[in-house]
Amino acid sequence: MTTTSSATGSLSSLLNTLTANTTSGSTSGNSTTTSGSGTSTSGSSTTSSGGGTLSASGIGSGLDVSSIVTALVNARKAASQQQIDTRTSQTNNLLTGLSSLNSALGGIQTALSTLTSINTFSSYNATLSPTNGSTSIGTATTMSSAHAGTYNIDVSQLATAQKRASDPYATGTAVGQGTLTISVGSSTMNVAVSATNSLSDIASAINGSSSNPGVTATIVNGVNGQQLMLSSSKTGVANAFTVSSNATSSSGLQGLATMLNTAGKNEAQDAKLSIDGIDVTSASNAVSGKMDGVTINLTGTGTSTLTVAQDNTTATNAIQGFVDAYNSYVSTVSSLSSYDTSTGAAGVLLGDTTLTSVQRQIASVLSSPASGNSIGTLANLGITRNADGTLDLDTDKLAAAFQSNASAVKDLFTGTNGYATRLNKSIASYTSSGGIISTRMDSLNNTLTQLSQQQTALNTRMSTYQTQLQQQYTALDTLMSSLNNTSSYLTTALEQLTNSNSKN
Q: What is the mean pLDDT of the chain?
């Protein structure tokens, strides 16, 4: 038994030494060696002298190589992995926070863009009110170049398009060969007509021609037969057409050309009207270019009063849009810089220098008056700050300011020292390409790229380390299996020797 105990103790020492060498400084689990009992533990392996056998759950000896290797790799990897994970999480949180801040500032810029649009503070509406018992003469629309005022409009004639029709023909009757020439102004179309072509064929050729100068051909099936009707595509004298045939055309085609070129009841005419006694004509019933920024869409004759007035609805909505965008920004900033004292949870940009700088810049612009403006401050216009930092708009006070001095309201925002002008300049330094936020986000993305590369390198190192451990512990497993077999053989032999001696 002394021999068996000594051999087993030597195996335990060998196991501990080999395990220590293969880990290269890594933790090898709980390892204890007791020479009296012959017990050695490394990971999950156990060697016992009582039965003279090294036992564990493994391939050859029972050693759990996979679990040991996994534990050693995880122990070696843990610290570096934790560092990469922590920095990646922090960087992603910063990117998310800066992106939210950038979006909130972008919302303010969009609202400021609307405020400074040329049409926002130069919007007008126009109404036509019939006078002297007249019926409606139409409607009016305006552009930013309009001017407020009241005008008397008297319409005596509407613009019409020219229409002419041929004599009746029996359906399918050939007209005669030759060439029809149709002209509108300086534009001309030649239509070749064969000896077998009917009115329908001629109409199709006119409508399908790529050189059509602005004439539409229609077949009207009247009680006396088919008639070809030509109509100018546009109203006005300038858009009237003429029809002729060449000298070699048949008498039938020449007769058709003569009929279509003869004036009738539906001749082209221009619209005629007067504006405050000044006579005006227009080829179209959409009379534009006769008054600055105003188009009168005529539908009838008669007299009306045209009233052009500034419309502050667009500007009011734009100012309200700015207030809403700013309040959204305040809400975003509050979330990004929040801190919950009960849970310790903090916003991702709490204490961030970029966020602090943005808040300071915007507050500086909004708190300082617009120099050279008679209104001076947002508060005087009806925009006040609440306790939570958000803004409120008093639309009644704003309407009174528009009524009193609309140009001053416009200048308060869009002037050189206006709030929209200064605020947009301050925000642009953060949101523009190459700005503060963009530069920081680029840097953070570069950090994520580097962390990804570090992760790849760590995975490669750990894979190599795992392969090395797998080979070493597989060799140990094989050695332990061989030693276990030897130990079992010696134990059996000693027992037989002992039994033989006891008989003697």
A: 87
Distances in Å between the alpha carbon of 432 and those of 26, 103, 293, 323, 446? Answer: 51, 12, 36, 22, 19
Q: What is the largest CA-CA distance in the chain?
A: 156
Q: What type of residue sits at position 106?
A: G
Model confidence at 375: pLDDT above 80: yes
Angstrom distance (rounded) from CA 230 to CA 189:
13
Q: What angle, 0 to 180 degrees and rounded to 10, lies between the N-to-C axes of helices 419-431 and 353-367?
A: 170
**133-168 pLDDT per residue, tens:** 999 999 999 998 899 899 999 999 999 999 999 999
Q: Which residues neighbour 25 within 8 Å (Cβ) at sequence distance 6 or greater?
A: none
**3-state secondary structure string, 146-182?**
CCCEEEEEEEEECCECCEEECCCECCCCCCCCEEEEE
Q: Which structure tokens are listed for 405? A: 């001095």
Q: How far is residue 408 from each of residues 189, 207, 371, measured CA to CA in Å?
A: 58, 57, 12
Q: What 3-state DSSP class applies to 212?
A: coil
pLDDT of residue 26: 41
447/391 Cα distance (integer angstroms) = 38
Q: Using only the alpha carbons of the chain, give its radius of gyration.
A: 48
The token pair that represents 494 in the structure block: 């000693």
What gap in Å lies between CA 198 and CA 179, rounded to an integer? 14
Tokens of 303: 């007299």
Cα 261 to Cα 253: distance, rounded to the nearest angstrom: 12
Dihedrals φ, ψ of 159, to 5°? -75, 140
Rounded-to-5 percentages of helix, strand, coil across the chain: 50, 20, 30
What's the one-letter identity of residue 244? S
Task: Provide the percentage of residues in the chain whose pLDDT is more than 70.
Answer: 87
pLDDT value of residue 37: 36
In the structure encoding, which two tokens stand for residue 264, read together?
A: 């009738």
Closest by CA to 319, choosing from 125, 114, 122, 109, is 114
Encoded tokens for 23: 């880990």
Residue with tokens 């179309």: 189
| Residues in a beta bridge with 219 | 228
Q: Torsion over CA of 439, 444, 446 and 451, rounded to 10 degrees?
A: 170
Q: What is the pLDDT of residues 161-220, one digit of tens each?
A: 999 999 999 999 999 999 999 999 999 999 999 999 999 999 999 999 999 999 999 999
Q: How does DSSP classify residue 362?
A: H
Closest CA to 441 of 96, 108, 103: 96
